[in-house]
Amino acid sequence: MKAIIKYKIFVFSLLLLLCSIKTIRAQVFANVDLNRKWVYVQQPFHVTITVYTRTWFTAPLEFGNLQIPNAFIVPFDKTQPGMFTVGGKQYPGIQFYYIVFPYKAGEFTVPPIEITAQSPPEGSSQSRKIVLKTTPHAYTVKDVPKELKKMGNWFVAKNVILHETWTPSSHDFKVGDVIKRTITIDAKGTLPQFIPELDLQKDLEWASVYPQDAVLTDTRGGGDANGRSVQTITYLLEQDGDFTVPAIGLSFWNPYAAKVETKTIQSLRIHVDKNPDLGILTTLKDSLDATVKPKAEVAQVKTPFRILGMTWYAFAGCVIAAILVIYILGKTGQRIYGFAKLEYENYRNSEAYLFRKFQYVSDNPKTFLSALYKWWDRFPGKTSASVGSTLDHAGKGKEGQEFKEYFEKTLHEKSGNNTKKIKQTLKDFREETKQENQSSTPTLL
Length: 445
Description:
By secondary structure, the chain is an alpha+beta fold.
C-alpha cells in the first residue's frame, strides 16, 4: 500500500514539474511557416521561423543547425524584429528564414530546429534561458516534366537572362586570330550550382574551340536566391572564309508559369581573311592546348554502408534507443497493469461489489443462495453465520422467520420464491447496520 502511495506522489510531482516547465516555455514560443507545401525538383521554398515573447529578448537568438535530406539550404542571416499578431494579440518577436532547394523528388519533412532564447517572465526583470524546439512540417517534391529531362541541359528558375560579349569586339578577323566569347547567365530564383554548363559545339572545321570552366557567383537578393554563371570560350581561327558561330540555347522549367522556357543566343556570321604568316598558327595552337585542363578522374570514395539513409552506426544507435524505450514502456506498463489488476481484484472481492451482484441475481435457488453467502461472508454487520439468526438477533424476527422458511422450502423442494422481498429485507438491514456503525464511531474534536 505504501508503494502505491509513493507511486501516486511521484506521478503527481512529475505532472506539477511538467506544468511548471510548460508555463515557463509559454513565455517564449515559436512558429514555423512554409510558403509552399509542394514544389518541383530545384524549385525553392521559404521556411520562415518566428520567435515570440511575452516580454522582451535580453540576448540574440541562437538557432540550431537545420539539416534537410536531399536539399540545399540557404540561410538568410539578417533577422527581422517587429510586432506580430498571434490569436488577436500583439507580441514582440524576431523573424528568420531559410530558402530550401530540394534536388530529389519524394515526401520529406522540415525537421524540428532547436532555438535558444533569453527572456524574463511576465512581472519579472530576471532573464531566463529557454530552449525551444519547433514542430516538424511535411512537404512534397514533384519531379520535373519528362519532356524537360529529355533536353539534358536543364534547370529550374523563375527567369533567365543570357547575354554575350566578344573580345575583340570588331569582326575583322584573319587566320591565326584568337577571339574570346564570354557568355553570362543570370538566373533568378535558383542557386548558381544548379546552372548547367553550356552545350557547346566543339568540333568546328574552321576553328579550334577551348571552353573554360564556368565561374559561379551567388547573387542572392534581399528575399530570394539568384545565381550567375560566366563561361568563356576561346576560338582559334584556322581557315579563311565565311563561317557561322553556332547559336546557343538554354532551357529551364519555370514552375510559376508551369512551362518549359528556352533562352537563346543567336548564331553569328563572321568572315576570316587569309594570313600569309601561318607559322604563328602552330605556336598559338600549342600554347592554347597547354591551357586545357585534363579531365580529372572521378575518385571512387568509399562511403559507409547505409540503412534507411543512415550510417550503420547511427542506425544501430537508433535501434538500441528504440529497444530501451520499448523496455522502459514495457516495464512501466507491467507495473500499471499489475496495480490495476490488483485494484480490480480487490474491488471484485469487496462487500459492496458482492452485494450489488447479489441484488441482481436471478430467482434460481442455487444461484440465489450462492450469491447471498458470498456477500454474507464479507458483510461486517453479521453476528452469526446464519442469516436468519442474525436477523433474529437484530430484532427482525419476522424477517428472520421468512428467510428460514424460504431456506427450508428450497432445501426440500429445490425451488423457491419471494426472493425479491428477501433482497429488499437484506438491503434495508445492511443500510441500518451501516448507519448504526457510523453513529457509534467516536468523533475527534
